[in-house]
Write a structure and sequence with these properties.
It is a single chain. By secondary structure, the protein is mainly alpha-helical. Helices cover 89% and strands 0% of the residues. The chain is built from five helices and no strands.
């Protein structure tokens, strides 16, 4: 009984923390989110100043579009998913032009590892 109660408490805490992280995303301005994404990219691939500025502009445009799209579409709807895919494609196309080949390969590898982690976490969650 204690194990079941403990498991329920852990699940509730997990759900709460996920909900909190989504809420804090919308508390930030597009500029703050673009700056964080640029800094994360810089930490991953070591950008020079010109690359930082260009990446920031790309992310800023994407985040501003995200804010506009989130007002126009119902979350998780097909329109919202299509808009998100278009924003990702825009970022990928333009970031590829900013980074050199080695940096871009490192970014792609990081994304693959992240996707793999997310898939394994979903599998683990579904087992519970």
């Amino acid at each position: 009984m204690k194990k079941i109660l403990f498991g329920v408490v852990i699940i509730l805490i997990s759900i709460t923390s996920i909900a909190q992280s989504k809420k804090t995303y919308y508390l930030k301005t597009p500029e703050q989110r673009a700056s964080e994404k640029t800094e994360k990219l810089n930490n991953l691939v070591s950008l020079n100043e010109e690359q930082k500025n260009n990446a920031y502009q790309i992310y800023l445009k994407q985040e501003m579009k995200h804010d506009l799209d989130s007002k126009d579409y119902i979350p998780e709807s097909e329109e919202a998913k299509k808009a998100a895919a278009e924003r990702r494609e825009y970022v990928d196309t333009h970031i590829k032009m900013v980074l050199n080949e080695k940096q871009f390969e490192k970014l792609i590898q990081y994304r693959k590892e992240l996707l793999k982690k997310r898939k394994s976490n979903k599998l683990e969650e579904s087992d519970i």
